[in-house]
User: What shape does this take?
Amino acid sequence: MRVRRGVFSAPIIATAVLAVAMAAAVTAAVMARTHRHAALTAALERVLAAAPPPSVSKDTWPAVRAFYAQRDGSLAWVRGQAPSGASATAIRVLQSSRDHGLVPRDDERMAAAREGLARATVRGADHDATLAAFDVELTAALLTLGRDVAVGRTSPASLDSRWKARRRVPDLAATLAAAYGSGLTSWLDTVRPQHPQYAALRRALASLYDDLESGEAPEATADRIKIVSANLERWLS
Assistant: This one.
């Protein structure tokens, strides 16, 4: 039987063309994602190489850099060209600061986080730099809160030079990196004081906030909140 060479049916040709087109599309998508990752990584490197933003303390900045080092220089709260779902979880963690008796300064921190989220959502001329700055500022806010929960905001030495802190600062970068993802909502519980009395004060504070929101004796409840919050702070000294 004679076989005619170089003759292919239309379905075979169409299938081959479709396969080539699909392979090209997949390759283009992979290249685009690789390019986006490289651009964002470069933007993050520039932010971390510069001086810390005004909102980030000198005590927190090394932990910020260490956090990204443990992530091999990749952003944590951005996916593609917008803030990720993880960023919403991170902001909820910031909102939980009042459960530890930390409120006034956190109102400003929350406002800054929301402003950063709004900027990162709008694509501007230098969107990569905006996303990288948002990512770093959100990480810094979390680490600052973690430090406050772990050892308090008030330095014992600022009150009395003879008063020495009893708690050491945990490895906040490592604990946050380990909690990233499914464990983020419980991260603060891993760095807070573990004493039963501290837990009891937290429960009391949560109950008082419930009373305040229900309108029960607002002035007296607000005063009790201040007292319990101060007692929580003493546990961190």
Summary: DSSP finds ten helices and two strands in the chain. The CA atoms of residues 115 and 134 lie 9 Å apart.
